[in-house]
Write a structure and sequence with these properties.
Number of helices: 9
Helix content: 25-40%
Structural class: alpha/beta
Number of domains: 2
Number of strands: 12
CATH superfamily of the largest domain: Type I PLP-dependent aspartate aminotransferase-like (Major domain)
CATH topology of the largest domain: Aspartate Aminotransferase, domain 2
Order of helices and strands: HHEHEHEEEEEEEHHEEHHEH
Bound molecules: pyridoxal-5'-phosphate
Distance between the termini: 24 Å
CATH class of the largest domain: Alpha Beta
Strand order of the largest sheet: 1-9-8-5-4-2-3
Largest sheet: 7 strands, mixed
């Protein structure tokens, strides 16, 4: 029985070669590779190098975004259906989280929730690779959380370039990885990017302003550069996998898309009544799945205050969806799932 993990980074010989070149060069800390990664990432988004800052993680990018936007003492609207990175970054930056429930049958936060009213800042999370339409929000500072949606777009603009700034994660299982950890801050406002860059350059400064070591290494950036080149192929393969799940007739979660939204398939998620039962049947055949966000992972309590998010926690299962997943393994999974009571 072949083991099929829920997720797997798409790393190969080219990344190994790029990493070993950096190792042999004698310079592994933040340097020319990080600079090139920033330039190439900026160009992928249609931005200039002055708009982009590489950092050590998506969490670091989010913390820095909140910091340069002056979140201290302010209300920050944020999805309850998200990982702890958001809550942690808000707390560390001295902000006050205002949690929002999801839209029905969707992993996306509901921006028409009246609780958004008092928030000065909004963390707009494009969950599962699905663009969250922020065009109706005019009176808030918007941080786009694009950790799960690199390459997706809305109104012909790449996500991350629609709000005041955007943050990306290159953790091992995100759409691309810079060797396990890494992140990027982007902003059309070059002065915000300059603020983040200044915070990151903590060493040997002539003033006593507080800064911190959130640097990416050249070893990470070299891997990230190869991955970025492969991103279009990764996204095409993910789309194929997603479509095969949809075409199999399994109950794939398909929230309505905003007009002119082009998603990426970070996740393929089933919406069913007995996700844990299906999870067990698949596990028995060596196939790993996860509940994308469990009810105990919701970012605020009581969870009953968030009925839409809670419903999703209790009725979803995320299936393997990554470039290295073979057609045969996916087919095997589909057949087992079709036999199960969903
Ligand atoms: C992964 C993730 C983050 C945090 O990124 P790290 O690089 O793991 O710190 C933030 N927001 C979302 C939506 C994520 O999926």
């Amino acid at each position: 029985m072949k083991a099929v993990p829920h997720n797997l980074p798409s790393l190969g010989n080219d990344e190994a070669e790029a990493a070993s070149k950096v190792i042999r060069s004698g310079w592994v800390a933040q340097g020319p590779e990080v600079r090139s990664f920033e330039e190439e990432f900026a160009s992928y988004l249609g931005l200039g190098a002055e708009n982009v800052v590489a950092v050590s993680s998506g969490s670091a990018a989010l913390f820095l975004a909140l910091k340069v936007l002056g979140a201290e003492g302010k209300k920050v609207a944020t999805p309850v259906y998200a990982c702890a990175a958001l809550r942690n970054a808000i707390a560390l930056a001295g902000g006050q989280a205002q949690y929002l429930d999801n839209s029905p049958e969707s992993p996306l936060m509901n921006l028409s929730d009246p609780k958004i009213k008092d928030a000065k800042i909004l963390i707009a999370a494009h969950m599962f690779g699905i663009p969250l339409d922020i065009s109706s929000i005019k009176d808030k500072i918007i941080i786009e959380d694009v950790a799960q949606a690199l390459g997706a777009s809305l109104h012909e603009k790449k996500l991350g370039t629609l709000g005041h700034c955007g943050i990306f994660s290159f953790y091992a299982t995100k759409l691309i990885t810079s060797g396990g950890q890494g992140g990027m801050f982007v902003s059309l406002d070059a002065s915000l990017a300059a603020g983040v860059r200044d915070y990151r350059e903590f060493d040997a400064r002539r003033d006593t302003k507080i800064r911190f070591n959130f640097q990416m290494t050249d070893l990470q950036a070299a891997i990230g550069r190869v991955q970025l080149k492969n991103l279009p192929a990764f996204l095409r393969r993910r789309e194929e996998i997603y479509l095969a799940y949809v075409e199999s007739g399994l109950p794939v979660l398909r929230p309505p898309l905003a007009s002119q939204a082009i998603p990426v398939r970070y996740r393929s998620v089933l919406k069913c009544t007995q996700p844990k039962k299906l999870q067990k049947s698949l596990e028995a055949q060596g196939i790993k799945t996860i509940v994308p966000i469990e009810d105990w992972e919701l970012q605020d309590t009581p969870v009953d205050d968030y009925p839409m998010a809670l419903d999703l926690c209790r009725s979803t299962l995320s299936l393997p969806c990554y470039p290295f997943l073979s057609k045969e393994d996916q087919q095997r999974l589909i057949e087992i799932a079709k036999e199960s009571e969903l």
